Amino acid sequence: MEKGRQNKAFEKKETFPICLRTSHLDDSASLKTYLDIGGYQQIQRILREKISPEKLIEEIKISGLRGRGGAGFPTGIKWSFIQNDSPGTKYIVCNSDEGEPGTFKDREIIKNNPHQIIEGMTIAAYIMGAQVGYNYIHGEIWEEYESFENALAEAKKANFLGKSICGFNFDFELFAFHGYGAYICGEETALIESIEGKKGQPRFKPPFPATYGIYGRPTNVNNTETYASIPWIIQNGGESFANIGVENSGGTKIFSVSGHVENPGNYEIPLGMPFNELLELAGGVWKGRTLKAVIPGGPSTPVLPASEIMKTTLDYDGLKNAGSSVGAGSLIVMDDTTCMVSTLKRLSYFFYEESCGQCTPCREGTGWVYRVIKRIVEGKGKPEDMELLQDVSQKISGRTICALGDAAAVPVLSFIKYFKSEFEYFIKNGKSMVAKTHD
Amino acid sequence: MLTKKTIQKIDKELKKFPDDQKQSAIIAALQIIQTENGFLTNDLIAMAADYLDMPKIAAMEVATFYNMFELKPAGKYKISICTNISCALRDADDIVCHLKKKLKIDFNEVTKDKKFSLKESECMGACGGAPLMTVNNQKMYEYLTPQKVDQILEELDS
Predict the structure, then answer these.
(1) Residue B34: closest C-alpha in chain A
(2) pLDDT at B1
(3) Do the chains contact at B24 and A197, CB–CB below 8 Å?
(4) What CATH number is given to the structural domain containing B82?
């Protein structure tokens, strides 16, 4: 990402960059830069003072940190699932397989602040008694994969990774792993299958990765942003982090803003910021146009019309009350020239293309949904199609091993809920209600 | 036969995994082979499987599951362009039309001189720079305009 085109939020004093705190610095990704801002001091302090894992987990619980990959599960609770002193190998996995359309925050953390991910993962390994870690990086961001390899080499050379880290009695090996084009591998058990060298098809849960993960060993999987938040929380205390956000939504969150705004980019903001303030940071709707709709957390989260999102705050409760979700913070902005029918067609094609094929409702249902929307966009829609779309979507939802099936239903149901007249118009007239179609 | 250079690279990847879990390196191994050969043949996939002591069919499953693998000859420069929502909203379709017209090929085709091939891609995770494309799965080009595309093609062609 080009400097200056983003991180406007950073320049404002009321924001607290944590994961992107090096983005504005020269040579942002280097070990030297990270050491200059106090990097790797927390893992050393933990090892030197022999701070107990329980105490660290308590601090993370106080911080209110929730999984930043989309599920929003409280991190402190998750990290207490793995018994620190159980025998045998345990794994720490970072999920940087960022494929949810509209999400590009992990890429920037890897690009500009890789050592903070490494330190966060090392602290996680100490807490859960893990010896080996992998950072699974989206195959399409190859340059970031290579730069993360460089960061690992730097950290190993300086003994922040490997045997006897910083001279203390603690070993942790960390490796980079690249995907090669499969959205489903962002699902944690599909990702584990992929690390085992297989097709990325999700596993049935339970057993959960905490008991049966990579090679059947206990494994903790978290998102990149989650790990990158850890060193700051340990340094400043859970309460400081919680105080940045609002109730039930501690800390900062990176929102990846894309689509019809003047300045697309990553904005790390305190949770609880009103949507209109973030829109302003991103330069507003482009070309002076009017806001039509926003997908707040990636296509797996329901779309909201302008009237709803404009009165919403960006935090877990705020978006939940508005009928959507924070998701991965992938905020996709659509102006008034956007045809919702053809936009839905593209999203439905995505879920159809990326369904792993394992569960019949998803494999067949996503194709069915796509074909029906396609015929509407081709002017061959039938009056009963809207009902059919909703019916098929509802029958995928809740009937699959993983959440991709549920996710595929979300845009269909929410687009029709809020933009029903546009679908009716398209079916009746064989053309879009808005001037320009993005088809 | 896998070249010595290829094997050295695969061996480096194998160091990331336990000795009895060589299969974990299959995605990396196929990536390395594809980067050297341009695309994967059944024979090459079988060689990778043999080298990692895994069933050939399991390697074939991986090669067909992950969509950055090419199972047919690609151009010297494989262009993958994202057409998903964030890119579509920033007029990726105009870039697609421009590329098709300029290269005189459709998606999944190779130019007559075998220099370029074109592929439609799902989200690449860099939507802030939309519209965008990658060349040979490794180099990403962001903030595309028809003029910028012309310049990139010219540089690659020279």
Answers:
(1) A180
(2) 84
(3) yes
(4) 3.40.30.10
Please report whether residue B91 resides in a domain.
Answer: yes
B118 and B47: one domain?
no
Burial level of A378, CB count in 10 A (0-12/13-18/19+)? exposed
Q: For A300-326, what is each residue's pLDDT tens digit?
A: 999 999 999 999 999 999 999 999 999
Q: Are strands B77-82 and A265-270 parallel, antiparallel or unpaired?
A: unpaired
Residue B70 in domain: no
The alpha-carbon gap from A59 to the nearest alpha carbon of chain B, in Å, equals: 32
Residue A335 C-alpha, separation from nearest chain B C-alpha, in angstroms: 9
Which of B38, B65, B92 marks a domain boundary? Answer: B65
Residues of B in contact with A215 (CB under 8 A): 18, 21
Whether ipTM exceeds 0.95 = yes
- Of B36, B65, B94, the one marking the end of a domain is B65
**CB–CB contact A143 B124 (8 Å):** no
Tokens at residue B4, please? Answer: 């010595």
Rounded to two decimals, what is the model's pTM?
Answer: 0.95
Task: Note whether residue B101 is domain-resident.
Answer: yes
Tell me: do B54 and B88 sit in the same domain. Answer: no
Q: For A211-268, how does the pLDDT look when each residue is reduced to its tens digit (9 = 90+)?
A: 999 999 999 999 999 999 999 999 999 999 999 989 889 899 999 999 999 999 999 9
Whether B56 and B101 map to the same domain: the answer is no
Distance, in Å, from the CA atom of A83 to the CA atom of A89, rounded to the nearest integer, reads: 12
Q: Which domain holds residue B21?
A: 4-65
Question: In this complex, which of A1, A260, A347 lies closest to B129 when CB atoms are compared?
Answer: A1
Instruction: List CB contacts (< 8 A) between B122 and chain A.
Output: 99, 101, 181, 183, 350, 353-354
Same domain, B133 and B94: yes
Are the beta carbons of B69 and B33 closer than 8 angstroms? no
> Among A77, A205, A91, A185, which residue's Cα sits nearest to residue A137?
A185
Q: Which residues of A touch B16 (CB under 8 A)?
A: 134, 175, 177
How crowded is the C-beta side of A309, counted as CA atoms within 13 Å? 26
Q: For residues B53 and B85, state if they share a domain.
A: no
Rounded CA-CA distance B125/A97 in Å is 9
- Residues B104-133: pLDDT tens digits? 999 999 999 999 999 999 999 999 999 999
Do B32 and B60 belong together in one domain? yes
The domain total for chain B is 2
Q: Are residues B151 and B88 in the same domain?
A: yes
Residue B30 falls inside a structural domain: yes
Angle between helices B4-14 and B26-37 (to 10 degrees): 150
Which of B16, B67, B85 minimises the CB distance to A101? B85
Model confidence at A437, pLDDT cuts 50, 70, 90, reads very low
